Amino acid sequence: MADNLHTRYMQAAATWRTHRESCAPCRSGQRCPTGDPLYRRLADLQDAYHRRIRSQGGTR
């Protein structure tokens, strides 16, 4: 079974990338009202995923 946290992290990354491609403020680093929560979700999931990896000694 796939790692649910990793799956959510990858989905959030894809969602953020898709949004950023069509949003000038987000591309320039000034997140729009729609992009800000997408970016925050990605960052939170990325942090959680990296914490898990570190807690497992760098293995998945």
The end-to-end distance, rounded to whole angstroms, is 13 Å
Number of strand elements: 0
- Listing every helix as H and every strand as E from the N terminus to the C terminus, the arrangement reads HHH
| Unreliable runs | none
Helix content: over 70%
The secondary-structure class comes to mainly alpha
- Note the total helix count: 3
The main β sheet shows up as: none
Mean pLDDT score: 91
Question: In angstroms, what is the radius of gyration?
Answer: 13 Å
Strand content: under 5%
Principal-axis shape equals elongated
What's the short story on this structure?
Helix 1 packs antiparallel against helix 3 (35-55).
Overview of this structure, please?
With 60 residues, the chain is mainly alpha-helical. The protein has three helices and no strands. The chain has helices at residues 4-21, 24-27, 35-55.
Topology:
Layout: H1 4-21, H2 24-27, H3 35-55
What would the keywords be for this entry?
60 residues; single chain; mainly alpha
